C-alpha cells in the first residue's frame, strides 16, 4: 500500500498548527501533528523539503521501518524539529493502519486498559480568589485533577495566567518578537506555597492538585519549593528546573517527597533515560508530537513502566487535535497511564479539525472511528493563513534572560 501524496498544511485558526497529510494509492488518508510552538515553519520546511519526497512510493504499513529510516538513516538525530517531523509521519501511518484494519488505533496498541482517560484542567487567575473560583468550576464539571497557576503579586505578566478569563493563556502573542516579561524567584517562592495551601484547604484532600514551574528555578530552589509544598500534597510539581542536566534532579529528590513531572520539551528517550532509570521523576510528560510519534512515545512509556514512572502527556493548545487524539489512544492502552493534560481548543480550531474524542464525567474518551478519529477541513484551514507568533521571554530585573 504505497504512499502517493504527502502534503503539509499550515493553518492558524486562532493559533498556528502544522499538519502532515499522507494519502495511499487506494485513497486512504492519515494525519499527523507537526506543530512546534513559535518555530512552526521550520518543521514545515523540514517535512516539505527533506521528508515528504522520501515517503512517496514507500509501503505505508511499514511504520517501524519508516521511523528508523527517518531517524537512524538521517545522521542528524534528535532535536524538536526533526522529531516533530518524524512524529507527524508516524502518527499519520498509525491513522492509516487503523483505517485499513477498521479499528481505532488503541485496539492496535493492545486494546483498552481502562474505561476513560482522567484529565486535568487549567485553573488560573489574577488573584487566589479567582483561582479558587475556577477550580470550583472544574470540580462542578467532574474533573478530578486541576493545575493551579496564579499571578504572582509584583511580577507583571506571570506566565500561565490567561489575559482573557476563560480563554487559553496561550497562544503565543509576540508578533514580531517575543513579549518581554519580568521574573522574580524571590516573590514567586514567597507567594506560591500560600496560594496552593489556600486551594487545598478549600477543596479538601481528594482533589488532585498540580502546579507548573516552567523551569524557572535552580535545583536547590526547586528542592525548597517541593519541601514547602509537602503539606499541600500536590499530585505533581512540574518542570521545577531545566532538565538538560538530568543529575540536578538528584538534588531535588534528596530534599523532598513532592512528586515531580517533567518532559514536555523532551524529544526522545535519551532526554529522560537517566531521570527514569534513577527514579528521579514520577511522571513523564513527553508528547506524541514532540517525542517522535506514537511509536517512540510508546517506547518511552514502556521504559518508564519498568521504574514505576507514570505517563502524563503534555496537552496544551499548541498541540493540535490530531496530537490529542493520538495521545488518547496511547493513554487508553498503556498499563502505566497517570494523567492527561487537557486544554480544550477554541471553536475555530475544533471546526478545522473535526474529531470524535469527547469529555464526559471527568474522563476523555477517544473516538471509536477506525484510525485516530480526527480529520482536517482543508478548505476551512486555508482561510486561516500562518500568523507569526512567539512565546514570551522572561527577564530578571537587571535584564538577564531567564530560563523557560
Ligand atoms: C505548559 C505549556 O501545558 C503546559 O504544561 O507548560 O503551556 C507550554 O508552556 C506551552 O505548551 C509552550 O508551547
Ligand atoms: Mg508545563
Could you please describe the fold and organization of this structure?
There is one protein chain. The chain has 404 residues and is α/β, with parallel strands linked by helices. The chain folds into two domains: 3-104, Enolase-like, domain 1 (2-Layer Sandwich), CATH 3.30.390; 108-368 and 388-402, Alpha-Beta Barrel (TIM Barrel), CATH 3.20.20. The protein is built from 13 helices and 15 strands. The protein has helices spanning 40-55, 63-71, 80-101, 105-108, 128-140, 185-203, 219-228, 248-255, 273-277, 293-306, 321-333, 347-352, 378-382; strands at 3-11, 17-24, 29-33, 117-125, 145-150, 180-182, 208-212, 236-238, 260-262, 283-284, 310-311, 340-341, 358-360, 363-365, 393-395. Strands 4, 5, 7, 8, 9, 10, 11, 12, 13 and 14 form a ten-stranded mixed sheet that branches. Strands 1-2-3 form a three-stranded antiparallel sheet. It has a two-stranded parallel sheet with strand order 6-15. The radius of gyration is 20 Å and the shape is globular. The N and C termini lie far apart (43 Å). Bound molecules: D-mannonic acid and magnesium ion. The site of magnesium ion (MG) has 4 residues, from loops.
What attributes characterize this protein structure?
3-stranded antiparallel β-sheet; alpha/beta; single chain; 404 residues; 10-stranded mixed β-sheet; TIM Barrel; 2 domains
SSE layout:
Elements (H helix, E strand, L loop, with lengths): L2 E9 L5 E8 L4 E5 L6 H16 L7 H9 L8 H22 L3 H4 L8 E9 L2 H13 L4 E6 L29 E3 L2 H19 L4 E5 L6 H10 L7 E3 L9 H8 L4 E3 L10 H5 L5 E2 L8 H14 L3 E2 L9 H13 L6 E2 L5 H6 L5 E3 L2 E3 L12 H5 L10 E3 L9
Parallel strand pairs: 4-5, 4-12, 5-7, 6-15, 7-8, 8-9, 9-10, 10-11
Antiparallel strand pairs: 1-2, 2-3, 4-14, 13-14
Helix pairs in contact: 1-3, 2-3, 3-10, 5-6, 7-8
The protein binds D-mannonic acid (CS2) and magnesium ion.
